[in-house]
Amino acid sequence: MANGLEPNLFELQGEDGSRIVYTTAGVDGAPTFGYTGSNRDLSFTGEEIDRLDTDLGNEVTVVLNRIADGDTTTLTLLVPPVDMGEKGTVEVETYAVVTTQAGGIKGPPPGQQSRYAFIAYSGPASSVDF
Fold first, then answer.
1. pTM metric for this prediction
2. Phi, psi of 72 (to 5 degrees)
């Protein structure tokens, strides 16, 4: 983000009706991630959020559902690099990957171990003071 502000707040609407609100550093300096969808309203903060800088951008992952001796479902939001220039808000388009990892009492069953669903998201990325 060489020439301008970097966004620290993403308010994204999914094509499936879900919603994500992600802050890179909230009021206490820790990242926050809110997910509303599939009849759930989930909130994550700090170490509950995995962040990885990759060639795709920043990959932000949270665990949506973990069943003991069963499947685990995660959501990974691809946060693109954004140079906002002098603007306070810009529109972004990106994707999230919902991954369901097979599990079971004796371990995962034979066959494909992960299933993936891709969801398009769009909305404002903003630079705000918390």
1. 0.89
2. -120, 130
6-48 per-position pLDDT tens digit = 899 999 999 999 999 999 997 888 999 999 998 899 999 999 9
Helices (H), 10-113: none
Q: What are the structural domains of the chain?
A: 9-126 (2.40.128)
Compute CA distances 60 → 4, 49, 51, 52, 54, whole Å.
23, 7, 5, 7, 10
- Written as one letter, the residue type at 58 is N
- What is the gyration radius of the CA atoms in the chain, in angstroms? 16
Kindly state the greatest CA–CA separation across the chain: 55
CA–CA dist 63, 30 (Å, integer): 17
